[in-house]
Specification:
The protein is an alpha/beta fold. The chain contains eight helices and six strands, in the order E-H-E-H-E-H-H-H-E-H-E-H-E-H. It has a six-stranded mixed sheet, with helices on both faces. The structure holds zinc ion.
């Protein structure tokens, strides 16, 4: 009998081909080029994005800025100063490290308009409205012993996570999607850049 351990690959995922999400994922792909390649780890890029506030007039555009999305933070694997940092944990750390005044200035810069009441938001208020984009499924196991990204994102109660491709079982069996969904975080797979995301993840290991 085959191993019946569930993996994220078997987990039913919401999917989207929306041009706006693809555009955000392209930004993550560019970030993943910054990673120092490693024989024992993936190269991943990630962004934290505050979507446009709900609008009475339903305008739609595939240009993130025209749409009103605000880029809050970026990260990539092994981003300095931590040689073991992951893309999502690095982007999260940078966002959390932002002084409150700087956070409010950033929120006020959202075009064409900022969220009502955002001048009083805490970091947690932002995270709960935030979408995380990542080229590879957030990890559920870290050999370095640090908290895994799925757990970190769930603990900070981000709203949604958009992934380019599920983590292949090159190193460990990843249960990131499953963990996030069970913790109440919506996970979406963005369709259309799977090959690029996977090639980028394995960069330098051929
Ligand atoms: Zn991770």
């Amino acid at each position: 009998m085959s191993d019946s351990t569930p993996t994220s690959r078997d987990y039913p995922l919401r999917t989207t081909k929306d041009a706006l999400h693809l555009q955000h994922l392209q930004t993550c792909l560019v970030l993943s080029l910054e990673c120092t390649v490693s024989p024992t780890a993936f190269c991943v890029g990630s962004t934290f994005v505050l979507p446009a506030p709900p609008s009475p007039s339903s305008s739609s555009s595939s240009d993130p800025e025209a749409q009103g999305d605000l880029l809050l933070s970026t990260g990539y694997s092994r981003e300095p100063p931590l040689p073991t940092s992951h893309a999502e944990s690095s982007a999260l750390s940078k966002l959390l490290a932002l002084p409150l005044d700087d956070l409010h200035s950033l929120l006020a810069s959202q075009k064409p308009r900022s969220w009502p009441g955002s001048e009083g938001w805490t970091h947690q208020d932002v995270l709960e409205r935030c979408d995380v984009y990542t080229t590879l499924e957030p990890c559920s196991v870290r050999t370095s012993g640090e908290p895994d990204c799925a757990r970190l994102l769930a603990r900070h109660r981000v709203k949604r996570v958009f992934v380019g491709v599920n983590e292949p079982p090159d190193f460990v069996q990843c249960l990131g999607t499953r963990f996030l969904e069970e913790a109440g975080v919506e996970v979406w797979r963005v369709e259309g850049l799977e090959r690029e995301c996977l090639e980028r993840a394995r960069r330098g290991r051929d």
